[in-house]
Amino acid sequence: TNSLKNKVAIVTGGSRGIGAAIVRRLAADGATVALTYHASPGKAETLVSEVQASGGKAKAIQADAGNPDQVRAAVNDVFEAFGKIDILVNNAGILVLGNPGEVTSEDYQRMLAVNVTGMVAATEEALKHMGQGGRIVHIGSNVTQYVGFGTISLYTLTKGAVSGYTRGLVRDLGPRGITVNTVQPGPVETDMNPIDGPVAEVMLPRLAVGRYGQGKDIAGAVAYLVSHEADFVTGAELLVDGGFSA
Ligand code: NDP
Question: Name one Pfam family in it (predicted).
Answer without folding.
Answer: adh_short_C2
